[in-house]
Amino acid sequence: MQRPNYPSGKDLLSADAISRFDLDDIFERAERHLREEEQEKAGILPEQPPVYRRRPKVIATLFDQRSTRTRLGFQSAAARLGHQSIDAYDTDRSRLGTSTGESIEDHVHTVELYSDLLVVRSHLEDMPYRVSRLSYLPVINAGNGADEHPSQALIDLFAIRQMRGEIEKLTIALSSDTRARFAISFVKMLRLTPPKRFTLCCLPDVPINPAMREAMTVLAGLGTEIGIVHDVRQTLGHDILSIQMQDMSKFAHASLGNEAVDKEKETEPFTITAQKILEARSDTLILNPLPRFSELDTSCDSLPNAGYFRQVQLSVPMRMAILERMLLGIPWTGQAAAASGSPAAP
Length: 346
Ligand code: CP
Prior knowledge:
The protein is of the alpha/beta class. The protein has helices at 20-41, 69-80, 104-111, 127-134, 150-164, 181-190, 210-221, 274-279, 308-327, 335-338; strands spanning 58-63, 84-87, 117-122, 139-144, 171-175, 197-201, 225-229, 240-243, 285-287.
């Protein structure tokens, strides 16, 4: 896929857009939003009143794929910041698409006149990049085909920090199809804060996606101990296990550009259950970007290991931090912002 230049660092299209400096800044902002939310819930007014804005900003979500968390999460974050959101890419109701013939160019040029920031999810890998080239507004890639899901990776790292502390001191396992967009962004983002150990749990007979392999090579170069296993039981000594389905093509999963249908059950070595956790006497924190399928059994939900709904909760301050930063026009300063064209290793 052809990737655009990032002349201004205005967009969050890939984990490559983010530098360590940006990561520290976004964590600090998210922690402040979390603290303020907790203070408000406890009936304590924030130490500093919110900055008054001249008028609320408008966040436009342009999604041609289904979404619960990302769409509602950004809309909720916008509302909590005092902003508003509009659904701008509803193919049933808008004039975009072949039935009426309005082009993506005209659609984007219209929507950008109603909005201040665009959040794009598409089954087409190049769609957020096209929108980025077409629009002067900041653009967030909220998942593009089988490419990336960078805001999900920021949420995952923030959740790990909040629930288990400094990432550099942790051992982290990922059980997933190595082509999954959340997984690629997750491992790329780990390069900014390399864990002590990283273990990939994957199918033995399927080649590892080159983007995943490259990110793991960089991690190894940064001093992370790298392992590859083929049974989720072998990850239960880690501090963290982020789990999703293997072989997503079998499930026609959204992360590969299609809608998810869970017609086939995940195979036993890649399914996490309460029984496996209890047998291993494991205190591994289980994360999952959700929606879950048969890889994460509901028997896990009542265990202290279950971190996935807290992960959803923590996504709100992180999305607030992302919107705040981008609406202030603060550029991302990662490798992609400095380089022209192809994604670069850190
Ligand atoms: N995690 C995630 O991207 O969920 P949705 O598909 O519901 O947005």
